[in-house]
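Let us work through a complete example step by step.
Step 1: write down the sequence.
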Amino acid sequence: MKFDYDAQYFNPRDVLECGQVFRFYPYEQGYRVFSADKECYIYSDGVKTVADSEDGDYFYNYFDLARDYGKIIEKAKEFGVKVLDEACDKARGLRLLNQNEEEMIFSFIISQNNNIPRIKGIISRICEGVGQNISNPRGDFYAFPSASALAQKDADYYKSLGAGYRDAFICQTARRIADEGISHLKDLSDCELKRELLSYRGIGPKVADCISLFGFGRRACFPVDTWIEKLYLEDFCGQPADRQKINAYFTHLFGEYSGYIQQYLFYAKRSNL
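Step 2: predict the structure and record it as tokens.
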């Protein structure tokens, strides 16, 4: 199944290179993207962005294509923040993805104190080592393993794949999710969800906000990392403060649009767009 979308509000590079997703790589004119046990090829001619997948409905939702990002940008510009106006213009093609919840829990546990090439490498090796091999006309790929499959391996196995000190976090969280599931998380309020995520080994406030935003679709979350701290000090005239206070400042300022605005600001700041 193929479908296309206005490239102005769906730029593959902006969507994939902004730090919200790790399972993709350049392919032909665009990228191959993987989520759970599914695959999609996306490319753009500058006018239209085309998505091609055997799981078209899944990826239509994954790329959040039912949502009008033109209106989101209009709302963002109503705040009258110059650096945000510039970020929205430069990263207009960015969209927030609706990703698999379990995959996001493990991906962002792996992401802490890590860089994107290493994160992608660790996740790729985990998929190859534990995930199911899936046939595809564009070439076989490996699914992201279920928590039950991950729980079959011990911490030393994940250390051997380069996870470092995160090895125990992956192992223990996999065993907990295999026992409890995560369906109970989906009906929690944003605050309750964050509090529950913080009870998992290896999940701190920033990682919990990322999982909430990118995995559970909680768009009022505003993850704070070193780039956001830099932005707060340099572009919002903030004084040195802990990340909890910075998070409170931005979520109070931007409310229900916090997650979208965080990604515009983060991507533009990190990329020097």
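Step 3: interpret the result. The beta strands are 2-6, 24-27, 30-35, 38-44, 48-52, 133-134, 141-142.
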